[in-house]
Design brief:
191 residues, alpha+beta, 36% helix
Length: 191
């Protein structure tokens, strides 16, 4: 991020700015407009006992959650209704970059570099104005599109988070008391 937004100001933009909502809710499948309308299933919690706070949802009902106490600088975990969970970013600014660059990141687990390229190409074929929409949302957030990471860099960060100490700190327990499966298998290789 280029520092144009003071800390703690991205979440309101994700919920109020029309261009940002159009990209994040419709393209990146991250809807922060009414997080209170969807809550985590009873019993879903972090193994560490730290707070798990939902702040956005996907169209499927999957949850984007902050870990621990604090503001937008907290780690972000994705909790899937399919029984998977894992860290996506260290802070909302990093999650925003992830969703802006490869908004198709949910389709990445277990794919080879060639398969990842095919997923990206298919996504772009379905959304021919993807770059235009991304650039408008990026600017509406006060960011410079030229400063966004590459797709490979963003996906590599997901791999590193899924293998590092953040994965252990963000381990999610399901409503039945069993740990949820990792969101990203260690075999994920960025394009």
């Amino acid at each position: 991020m280029n520092g144009s937004n003071p800390p703690g100001t991205l979440l309101p933009l994700l919920a109020a700015d029309k261009e940002v909502i159009a990209f994040f809710a419709e393209v990146a499948d991250l809807d922060a407009t009414d997080p209170a309308s969807h809550e985590l299933e009873d019993g879903v919690r972090l193994a560490s006992g730290a707070r798990l706070e939902q702040f956005a949802r996907a169209g499927s009902g999957d949850a984007y959650c902050f870990v621990g106490e604090g503001g937008e600088e907290r780690p972000v975990v994705y909790v899937s209704l399919d029984g998977e969970a894992g860290p996506l970013a260290v802070g909302l600014p990093e999650l925003v970059r992830l969703c802006l660059v490869p908004p198709w990141w949910r389709d990445a687990p277990g794919r080879t570099p060639a398969q990842l390229r095919a997923v990206a190409d298919e996504y772009r074929a379905d959304l021919p104005d993807l770059d235009h929409r991304r650039d408008h949302a990026t600017r509406a957030l006060g960011l410079d599109p030229a400063e966004l990471p590459s797709e490979a860099t963003a996906l590599d960060r997901l791999v590193n988070l899924s293998r590092g100490p953040m994965a252990a700190a963000c381990r999610v327990i399901g409503h039945e008391g069993d740990p949820l499966d990792p969101l990203f298998a260690p075999a994920l290789s960025p394009a």
